[in-house]
Batch of 4 targets.
Target 1
Amino acid sequence: MPLRGVRLVALDLDGTLLPSSKRVTDTAREVVAELREAGLHVTLATGKGWAHTQRYARELEIDAPLVALEGAYVAALDGTVLRDVHVSVALRERVADLTADLATGWFATTRDGRLVACDSLRELERLLHLWEPRVEFVGHALREYDGASPALHLVAREDVAEEIARRLGGAGLPDVTLFHTPLTPTGWWQVQVRPAQVGKHHGLACVLEHLDVSAEATLACGDWLNDLEMLRMAGVSVAPTNAVAEVRAEVSHVAPGTCEDDAVPRFLRAALADL
């Protein structure tokens, strides 16, 4: 009975609640309503920017505080901000210095719902829209970017991305984490540089404190590497079968089916029936 004792359900979006169309399905909308009618809080925990997160929350009629930008930004739909973590000027300048001689592009999300990217990444515009609906290309270097962002995304071919990760990892940057991963299916890789306080689990912890809910009374759903810490902290964790192997190995339950056929909403509906 996965929902027994659960007071909050945290849902990742891409690959978990959303199919590849990125559209909320009728089943997902209905199940979120059913969860709330049963007295459970429901939140979103996503790497997407605030504009996308707000839009999906409104469509799903979710009223709990939301976890956006990989946990760096937590806010309610009424504008109340509970958490706002961003890269310092000193860290951005240090990263720029360490990578200045490498063939790398960069992008960063902003507080006001934009994504700023260097001109060399124009071919990835469609992919960048997954983070934020508004993408702005600029001609200047990373050092000259002056916006507040929860992370810096350095984009390069695989061998260059490995060198970026090696340099940054060996530079002794204080209180910094690196997230080195392919930008599928483009053939490009990203090295995400972010303060150590950024992560979905940190954002979710903020929501739990605000709602006075324990981690043990939380059910979290996700499918990818950036969900692992959140899934580990939750009392119950769920993933669809399309989740990466590392996630499937960690969760309490693997929901039959994939995000394309509403695996997680259907699992939650069945769990509700068992209450």
Target 2
Amino acid sequence: MNQQNTVTLIEHYYTAFNNADMDAFLNLLTDDVIHDINQGKRDVGKDAFTQFMACMNSNYKEQLIDMVIMASADGKKAAAEFVVLGEYLKTDDGLPEAQGQKYSLPAGAFFDIRDGKVARITNYYNLQDWIVQVSA
């Protein structure tokens, strides 16, 4: 992989996410993908990631905008910054009650790339900001 190929991979990753094309989205991951969940645990494996996304897609409707993607010269690392436009559809464990609240949340992600696929994704956003938005 080189820098441009990695940027293209991450573009495809987020395009599949925005299109809710879970097959295309999950096909961009290694089987042993590492997923560091914002302020949470680390999951390992495509099956765990698939379960996480099923929960997310049940509880939230999100689109990512204002995307900026950066990659290292060797294409092994990447980062993305974006804004999450979302709607809170169904109450998630330990979080405020869902009532269709809308939110806009700055976020970022870091990636490791291996064999042309995403081998690690670490997401960051301000959970307290989100809680304030959906509790208002």
Target 3
Amino acid sequence: MAALVRYEQARTALAECARIDEASEIRDKAAALAAYARQRDDRDLEVWVREIHLRACVRIGELSRELERAEPGGAGGGSKFPAVGTSKAQALADAGISTSTAHRYEELAGGREEQAQAAGRAAMEAYFAQSRAEGAPPTMAGLRGAVRGALEATLGPLPTRPKRPAPPAERPKVAPIGADWADFTAAVLTVATLPVDFASLAGRAPRALLDDLRGEAREALRRLPLWINALENEHDDTA
């Protein structure tokens, strides 16, 4: 029952979101809860929070679609910005969302035609209802497939996304990983797999360092959902 109450509260909050960063915050919190639910093997909770995560992605797509791009100004120069006073690119950047991610989220929201949006919403609700009935956490790939199928049934075959050209032979196909990537992923792996009694470990922490340790831990907790989201968004085409 508590999970259902939180679900309804999150849905209401998403509907009231007027800025991309607000919806993005709900998306990230839902991703963190989904990771927690998987860790606890709480399938019911994971179904709810995964749905909220995807609904937040769709809401971001709706808000992104509504934002105007900056347009050339009049004789006085400058630019014509949206009513909120921020260009679309800046609003996305402020929320930590790339333009490619925003485009994928706009596709989840059904695109720009009203008929397509209505078909996308209906497909989304049907997909989520099915996932709840089956007790299977919804996925980005599953939602995308449901929405795309509904759009094709409504509008006909959709244009395929052009493939990226293959890199020149003299260039490596994969960019160097870099020390920052190696350090961060190694730290995540260490925390995830280190056999340690956290209560005992915390008890040995010097009192003078408590504030610093708590701050660092909270910062790590804030950043991990962003890492999980980034991984899912970067590789969701292959999911």
Target 4
Amino acid sequence: MTAPVQDGPGARSPARTRRIIGSDRPFDEAAARASAERNADGGVQDQRAQGRQIGAQWHGGRIEAITRPTLVLHGEDDALIKPRAGRVIASRIPGSRLVPLPGVGHELPEPAWERVAAEMRGLADTAGPPPPGSGTVTPDP
């Protein structure tokens, strides 16, 4: 039996991770700790990182200007970015399709990978080639 997930000044928030991934799926505390240790930022304890996120501004075009086929994937159990946000985003992208992911929180768990891959494959199969001049690919040197 695993000890309860603890948060403390030196911890990298596995308990917070547990809260945001969704309540209906197994939680691997050891994997969450290992992932947190690999993460360069200190999570919610890192006030500078939090300030950067809060103050971040979008410098791209308007979301309504997206003209390519678009999937909006959103976890139904996301406690960090509520599912309503996925619906709002999808409503602003002409012709987009919202794919709610049951049992998924803020992270994309392995059990959802097959569904996500199938949705992406379906989009790719029906999207057709991009219009000329819509982007370029620079080959690796």
